[in-house]
Amino acid sequence: SAASCKSAWPQLPAAPATEKNGPSPKSNYPIPEYVLFKDNSYQDKWRFKIAWEIIVSEDISKESLNSLLNVLYNKAKEKISMNDKRAIVIDIKAYVSPEHATSGMGQWIGWLNQEGIDNKPRIVFRDDYFKYINNKPKVKFGLTENERMEIWKELIKAEDRATKEALNRYPNMNPFSEYSKLEKNLTLRYKLDLAKRKNISIEQLDEIAKEGRRKNWPFPR
């Protein structure tokens, strides 16, 4: 389907993303404010993992976020002894809202990850998000961006509904051919119903779905 069900949302983006290895040199970009949303850090006799999820402003620049991730990386390193023989992991993800952080769809805009104290950290940015944040919201199909975002959420719910109903009919997707056929038919039915209720075409609905993925709109919970 055009919007793709939640289960298909990748943890690492299939969309264009930039990746950097190792901390960046000091820059003139200011360190933006952030909120520590969740600390998932833990340790045992074999492993020491620092895992932070942070919330940043939705209009943050990629350069400022890069500076912030490097500052937090250095703070994380201060918690680790160089003599620690355990497996060391540093994992820091940046989101623009609690809704993005809790969607379960990997909707971060920046991710720093280091596996092993001797390895360099890797920083990945979701390029599509930064491409659109400076664009002013536009009216499309007679709908404001907020109205299109609400339609996006309804579409995701409709696709999830189709998947669940098909699974109820054919548990474990067995036989897969029958499950797949029913899911596609139900998805189309619910999409047509949504398009009719919103007075838009199915093609416009598909465009809204693509826009939602490009702009990293939060998935409904």
Question: What's the topology here?
Answer:
Elements: E1 17-21, E2 34-39, E3 42-43, E4 47-56, H1 62-78, E5 87-95, H2 98-101, E6 110-115, E7 122-126, H3 127-132, H4 145-169, H5 176-198, H6 202-214
Parallel strand pairs: 4-5
Antiparallel strand pairs: 1-7, 2-4, 3-4, 5-6, 6-7
Describe this structure in words.
With 221 residues, the protein is α+β, with helices and mostly antiparallel strands. The protein has helices at residues 62-78, 98-101, 127-132, 145-169, 176-198, 202-214; strands at 17-21, 34-39, 42-43, 47-56, 87-95, 110-115, 122-126. Strands 1, 2, 3, 4, 5, 6 and 7 form a seven-stranded mixed β-sheet that branches. Helix 4 packs antiparallel against helix 5 and helix 4 packs across helix 6. The chain starts with 16 loop residues before the first strand and ends in a 7-residue tail after the last helix. The model is unreliable at 2-16 (pLDDT under 50).
Protein traits:
6 helices, alpha+beta, disordered N terminus, 221 residues, flat
Short synopsis of the structure:
The chain is α+β, with helices and mostly antiparallel strands and 221 residues long. Helix content is 40%, strand content 19%.
- Beta content comes to 15-25%
Describe the global form: flat
- Provide a count of the helices: 6
Q: What is the helical fraction, as a range of percent?
A: 25-40%
Q: For the terminal residues, how far apart are their CA atoms?
A: 19 Å
Mean residue pLDDT: 86
- Going by helix content, strand content and strand pairing, the class is alpha+beta
Number of E strands? 7
| SSE succession | EEEEHEHEEHHHH
